[in-house]
Design brief:
The protein is built from three helices and two strands. With 78 residues, the protein is α+β, with helices and mostly antiparallel strands. Helix 3 links the parallel strand 1 (49-53) and strand 2. The protein is globular, with a radius of gyration of 14 Å.
Length: 78
Amino acid sequence: MTFDQASTIPLVLATAACGLYNDKISPNGGAALTAPWLEGGRSKYAGRSIVIIGGTSSVGQMGRFSALYLAVIRLTLR
């Protein structure tokens, strides 16, 4: 992995965390889920489902940390 590739990892994780765990404040609010690093957040959503378009991305992986069942939608151009 190059330095340039590695430098994007914090950005994608922060973007995913903002979308899932930020409060629902307009216009750019998140889903207001309890973050898995907070007390009780790791198992709070166990067994619950969420649809994430492009769920194989960092947002989907962050959803897995919250024990969410992902309904993954993956599109491929042919």
